Amino acid sequence: MDVSGWQPNVDWKTAWADGARFVYIKTTESNDYASSHFSRQWSGATSVGMVRGAYHFANPYESTGAVQANWFVDHGGTWSADGRTLPPMLDIEYDPYTGSDGTNSCYGLSQPVMSAWIREFSNTVQARTGVVPAIYSTTNWWKLCTGNDPSFGSNPLFVARWPEDLADGPGTLPAGWGDFSLWQYASAGTFPGDQDLFNGDYSKLHFWEGFLATGSPRSSIAGGFVDSAEYRLLRIDAAYRDILGRGAEESGRQGWLGVMQNGGITTDDIETTLYSSEEYYLKHGGTDTSYARALYDTLLGRDGSQSDYAFWAALVAQHGRAWVTAQFWNCTETIGKRVGAMYDRYLGRQPDAGGLAGWVTLGLRVGDSGVRSGLTSSDEYFARAQSGH
User: Residue 130, Cβ neighbours under 10 Å: how many?
Assistant: First the structure.
């Protein structure tokens, strides 16, 4: 179940006796509302043994994702490894204030700006609590307001759909999620507030609240590994080894890691920085032409023509190495090479044309880490791992 200020006097003992075992409780909205009922509701749920979590109702029209995330965490949207706390949750849905704020269902934001807002909120909550927040939404809103952005698969999905027949299930999920963690199936019923189902049994609920979720999407687990300090250090070491041919100084490793953990950069940023460094430049001849030739060799895996090298050398002189490296790194040919290597490593095969095109498109939006998370949370990878490969 989930409750808010609309249910100020929940009979928690009765809810427990009727079978409720978890609850999400509204704590904040936008950047200026904190529920006066939250503490009492949280204590009530705790007193009867429910697994409980806090949620924030977003209003992207009023302030940034970071501002609202900090407001949320400051007013109860935290997480604790106590065995009874669900991941913090973002409630993002149709704007209920279109009449007063003069916007639309998407709070007046374009699809790319909405995706960026959600990403900023998620990253800020994760940085402050240590866990990836869940996202509550409907498939139709997600399609309308984010363009069906597939890059949030590492966030547990709380999908809302109220069918006439429960056998119809939650329906088609938003892109990026192969499964749901929670399903809101009705606005009223046995329990106070909205009626929700967890995608698993009671024992799995306790695994999930600890966030190594047997019942949550595999993408949550894959995303957690990709975002872990251990994995990031491995990627940093590999970048230095593959690009500069040496190991990274310990101070450099920890410096990069600190910025990554704060959400400032990704492994893609580290690799492109190393490719555009003076060390790489000198290691490959120390001229703009030899530098262009090295990028063709290492990033595209092929030779260019002399006119190609001259063209890019001129752009190095005009825009600098960082700009040129970005053009190589983000071109579909280069991403396709990297996706192909990941297919070989994680799935043991080369991608088909349709799969390659899809992952390249995703790579343009979310970078290599997002592609790794996606591949390692796929049904194919899961089946391959179970077979011992």
Answer: 13
